[in-house]
Specification:
With 341 residues, this protein is of the alpha/beta class. It is built from twelve helices and eleven strands. Strands 9-8-7-10-11 form a five-stranded parallel β-sheet. The chain has a four-stranded parallel β-sheet with strand order 4-3-5-6, sandwiched between helices. Helix 3 packs across helix 4 and helix 6 packs parallel to helix 7.
Amino acid sequence: MNRPSLSTKSFSSPILQTPGTQTFPCRDLISTRDLGPEGVNAVLQLAGLMKSRPADFRLALDGKHIVMFFEKPSLRTRLTFEAGIASLGGSVSFVDQTSGRLDAREKLSDIAHNLERWVDGIVLRTFAHSTVEGMAEHACVPVINALSDLEHPCQALADYFTLQERFGDLKKITLAYVGDGNNVAHSLLLTAACLGSRFRIATPSGYGPNAEILAAAQEIAQETGAVIELFPDPHQAVVGVDAIYTDAWTSMGQEHEEDERARIFPPYQVNDALIAEAAPHAVFMHCLPAHRGEEVTDEVIDSVRSVVFDQAESRYHVQKAIMTVLLGGGEGRLSMRSAHA
């Protein structure tokens, strides 16, 4: 997957302590790769500041308006974006696309050129990753990936924010992901690589992470010192780790594979026996919604080890930071990208 070359976006923010206008690494958040190590660390730093001093940011996005198009149902993603921009002085319009894909009635580029005339940012929760990429290619305002079939960058950033609050130095943390090598796993891989963390992933044969995502994470890891390890056996993957993460065995859009996956994935269930092999202080993580009794047992997700609701809260703080750095610049809208728009 090749992203079009995009100009950087400048902004002024408490995220950086030097005076004047600073340059943020990207102008859209389509993939964690857009942020890179500098951007990932900057977002986590700002999220921490916003959580500890929310009143300081009440007008950070004053007068800014975002639109959200969701092709998939949502609880956490929708409400954390809506509450987040409201807390920053902005406003939001929500468009329910669950009854049809975003570009089913109108060409995606036409939608993008309309939206850029009315709003300051676009948040998309889609099936096809190409929909998010296409919107970013054609719209001159920031586009945020709130989930696609390839990545879930906001979730992974929130997850590592949760770990940072719990353990501190993320370079010393080992996270083991057990289950399907899906969009969440992809963004966790990339985020861990950007942060210089140790990341282990255990998946059944044929259900591992996307090869291009894995290669990109390994390339970033060479720069940051991160360690990425792949295991076929979940028990080997979790030995001594600080956190165990899992997600649904069957993601939205894969319902036709549900029976087959139900036969393959039971050895990857996170239960008391599996989590006992982690470090004594280890936490359990899940992006939710959870299919209790499948990828995780009630005993684990309801235990004192579980930080799933901390992760859900972290979505709010991290997405506030993302919106602030992408929409909060003082220079106004970017120039139109197409002469005919």
